[in-house]
Amino acid sequence: MELYGYPLKAKYAFPKPPPTKILPATSTVAATYKDRIPYQPDSISLPWMPNSYYRAAALNPTLAPISESFPGLPPTKIIPFISERPNGVFTRHTLDDWHRSNMTNYKESETTRHNAERLRADLNRTIKDVYQQGKRTQGESTKNLGERVNDIEYWKSELCLELDAMIRETNSLTDMQKRLERALADTEGPFQVAHKCLLNREKRMGIDLVHDDVEKQLITEIKIIRSCRERLQQCLNTVNAQLMCNKEARQEMEKDLADKQMGHHIDNKCYQLKNTSRGIHYYKGVECVDATISVPETWARFTDNNIFRSQSQRATSAKLRASTESMLMGTADEMWRQFSKVNDAFTGRITEIANAKSKIQTHLAKTRQEIFQIETKIQVIQKTIKDKEIQLKVAQTRLDERTRRPNVELCRDTAQLRLVQEVNEINETLRNLHQCLRASEDMLQMLVRSKAVLEHDLVVKNNSLFIDQERCMGMRKTYPSTVQILGYV
């Protein structure tokens, strides 16, 4: 009788049993394996064979004594290797051991079958729970997708209504655009001139790169021109900036509407997908990729902000269509007064730079003259040092020659003492002359550095004078008339 789960084998599949031996080989004697822990597989993706097949295959026979494998058995007497029985026949296990081994195998088999039955019952419950949970989860996901599609349709209708209203408001502003564009184009000239003057003055070098009154007046002029352009747009129905704002709001709504249409198409497609639909595949790891950048609250707030922004721009655009001619005149007069102030500041600064340039040239000439004189003195000191070195050579040569006098002629006479004194005096003089030479050379270096500073400062002043007088004032000789600024021509 075969156990359930084992393949049935034919009679001829069993090999013929080998003949019995009188004495089994020593290598075939193995200890019991009942105290081994059965092999537990890590997964259920195994062949259809039962687990007992793998546990039996995983056992490794050992040569431990029988008394250790069966702790409940009484210790048996170890049979000597040399048998006292005739023909060398002896028994390694008792009959009780044989019965106990069989009973242990039966109990293990029953335990294994019982565990298998419980595992099958657990698997059936697990499969049923998994199916129900998957159906419930998929139903909830489908329901959420349907609600998402309805939300997108609502916001799409709101965007379409606001977009139509913005288009109508933008078209109503185009009638005033031509005259206002001419007025704003004429104010662009003074703004560019002031801006270029600031950029040109940034090319000043060194200490002349100061935040002087000219730069302050230029910055003020730029602010006034910008303020005047803003007031022209606000008070004189200057709709260019507002049209740009309207265009930006319209583009944001159109982009949002296009995103809503694409999202509606994708979510509607996902809503209609089923287990039997075509085109479903595995995308391993897609649940770990979080490409979302918003939550439902921020998603709804984004569209609501776009609609609110469009409504605000439409209200502002309607207010900008009321303006007065007096505001135009006041704006032109304010720009003209600031233009005159900047020119006056340039004139005063050019005068200051010219005076500083004249003084630098005077100091530079004096410095060059002093450099010439100190160089002359250095040459004199160098010549004096050379003369003293020749005298030192003469004195030291005399002393060296006098060391060759024979015997008693090596006398410390007055000439010897005077020569020694002369060498010391010349050395002291040379030290003083070298100190004077070093001081003169240091002074020359300082004068040369001062000359370089003055020359560099003169170049800086020439550059600043050229920028302010030629470039900046050359651009500011002409100014648009008030009629041009007001956009009458």
From TrEMBL:
Compartment annotation: Cytoplasm, Cytoskeleton, Cilium axoneme; Cytoplasm, Cytoskeleton, Flagellum axoneme; Cytoplasmic vesicle, Secretory vesicle, Acrosome outer membrane
Coiled-coil boundaries: 106-133, 378-405
Membrane topology label: Peripheral membrane protein
One cellular-component annotation, GO: outer acrosomal membrane
Keyword terms, alphabetized: Cell projection, Cilium, Coiled coil, Cytoplasm, Cytoplasmic vesicle, Cytoskeleton, Flagellum, Membrane, Ubl conjugation
Record has Cytoplasm as a keyword: yes
Top-level division of the source organism's lineage: Eukaryota
BP-aspect Gene Ontology terms: cilium assembly; cilium movement involved in cell motility
Protein family: Belongs to the tektin family.
Subunit structure: Microtubule inner protein component of sperm flagellar doublet microtubules. Interacts with TEKT1, TEKT2, TEKT4 and TEKT5. Interacts with CCDC38.
Function comment: Microtubule inner protein (MIP) part of the dynein-decorated doublet microtubules (DMTs) in cilia and flagellar axoneme. Forms filamentous polymers in the walls of ciliary and flagellar microtubules. Required for normal sperm mobility.
Record's protein name: Tektin
UniProt gene name: Tekt3
